[in-house]
Amino acid sequence: MVIHANDDHVFHNPVEDFVHTYEDDPYTPVTPRAPINRTHEVVILGGGWSGIMAGVALKRAGIDDFCNIDHAGDFGGVWYWNRYPGLQCDNDAYCYFPMLEEMNYMPSKKFTEGYEILAYAQSICKKYGLYDNALFHTLVNTLRWDDASKHWLLGSKQGDQIRARHLIVANGLLNIPKLPGIPGIHEFKGHLFHSARWDYEYTGGSQREPVLDKLHDKRVAIVGTGATAVQLVPYLGRYAKHFYVLQRTPSCVDTRRNSETDPDWVKTLKPGWQEARRQNFHRGANERYLPGEPDLIVDIWTEVNRHLSDEFNAEDHYPDLQEYAERRDLMDLRVMERLRRRVDAIVKDPQTAEKLKPYYRYQCKRPTSNDHYYETFNRPNVTLVDVSETQGVERLTERGFIANGEEYPIDCMIFASGYEVTSDLNRRWGFKAFTGRNGFSMYDNWAGGYKTFHGVMTHGFPNLYLIGLNQGGLNSTLTANFEAQARHIAHIIDQAKQRGGVATVEPTREAQDAYVQHIRDTEIDRTEWIRECTPGYFNNEGKPDVDEHGNEKYRFYLGEVYGPGWDAFMKLLADWRNEGTLPGLKLE
């Protein structure tokens, strides 16, 4: 959504106004329609990867009476909304794309363009018939459990009345763009927009042909130097008359080494190759390789564990967890030092190079890679503005922005400031009301911390299922998380249906409490690591670790990851399903 700061109606409260205006869809025309009144066995809120995987899992379970609802004009989630120049998958596409073998598809590159990801996601929806009942350009704003009818009642901004026996909330982790609360933002007379709603009408070019030729006479600034900005900066630096990069904390940026998919390599792949690759990537990125296991990925995500594994194999010694953690810290320092040396080798101005060096532990910020990011700072029309001392831009004026006491005149400011991932649930989800039994609010239910059973259900909210990072396993391939959760949810719904006469499924309080305690008893204590990280979504942007009730706020992003690891969590769920009686759930 484009924000015009000189429109008087926009910036009375710029942050809140943007939350409302992001609902507009610049890509697909809205077709006027009458309010809808209908009932489904299952409603899935969301049309991104989590919602798509939920639909696929229901279809596989033989459940056809469902619909996906999304405020976008089509399926795709973040890949529908994000269409900025240079957008690519920033980790291994052969892992990230789900269902490659089933779809008989192979990504064109290791790091594939965003438009290819969008097209692939929509091809899955077409194959599985997810378009049949889908509702797009529909913004659900109330969710209410009705005990009399044993249904969820959904209301929308469009006036719809939709009833669902079962409700799957799959509204995504990155669904509301975050606009920095910069003082004076309402005074700026230039052009503003968020990277999640790229304005090609202003910049020129298109996603497939990102020639931003309309910027040749424009002074442009970008707020943010995270994963999005790393992809954007080379394009803006190439085309803008002058380009300011406003940096609070530098990213670590390795070489990209992107390559087209080798057809000879594809011919060597055996059935089951994608799951094996995903497992290898997960061990390399966030756990540890098995003795003698090769690194199939070979990029920034796996470098620390790759070097450690090489050392252990050479020593013929695989250490216990304590020794492993100690040696991993040392390897972390070595890899980060290599990345800092890379800055010196590319950036010509020593002062600029020093500001671009990442001084923190690996993965305190999302690791990135780009072959042209650092080179952009050698251009005479590009200025790095360090705003670390003031923790951001001081303010905006009519003509530009103020940083470190100096005013910089600009024509356009772009916010590559990410998404609402650490704000309160009611802000992130945007539902005016979300109530379970006896009108109990979900926001009150989860105040200060998740309370779930298997990370997908919660007591007091019958027939409700949630997909996200909520007290479960964490796979390095995010789509693998969604697939596993969707499969588990579809199993529960199918089992309830097979039992006949079952109207509600809900975890007992005792089962939920036992599960939460098990999660916390087995959780790896990462408190010190999180607190030592630079400001980001892991530590609530460097703000106090606790809310007014003394609860740890960062738990809302990490979701209390299952300590024994991904494979152990998959076994926990599989064993529970195989037991056959849905232990811990109350069926009525």
Q: Would you mind describing this structure in some detail?
A:
This protein is an alpha/beta fold. It has a domain at 37-75 and 130-176 and 422-587: FAD/NAD(P)-binding domain, CATH 3.50.50. The protein has 21 helices and 20 strands. The strands form 5 sheets. Strands 2, 3, 4, 5, 6, 17 and 18 form a 7-stranded mixed sheet that branches. A hairpin with a 3-residue loop joins β13 (395-396) and β14. The longest helix has 26 residues, at 321-346. Residues 1-20 have low confidence and may be disordered.
What's this, in brief?
With 588 residues, the chain is an alpha/beta fold.
Features:
six-stranded mixed sheet, FAD/NAD(P)-binding domain, seven-stranded mixed sheet, 588 residues, alpha/beta, disordered N terminus
Mean residue pLDDT: 90
Largest sheet: 7 strands, mixed
What is the CATH topology of one domain? Answer: FAD/NAD(P)-binding domain
Low-confidence stretches: 1-20
- The CATH superfamily of one domain is known as FAD/NAD(P)-binding domain
**End-to-end distance, in Å?**
45 Å
- Give the CA-based shape: globular
Kindly state the number of beta strands.
20
Measured by DSSP, the beta-strand proportion falls in 5-15%
Number of helices: 21
CATH architecture of one domain: 3-Layer(bba) Sandwich
Tell me the structural class. Answer: alpha/beta
Q: Helicity level, as a percent range?
A: 25-40%
Radius of gyration: 24 Å
Q: What is the C-level CATH assignment of one domain?
A: Alpha Beta
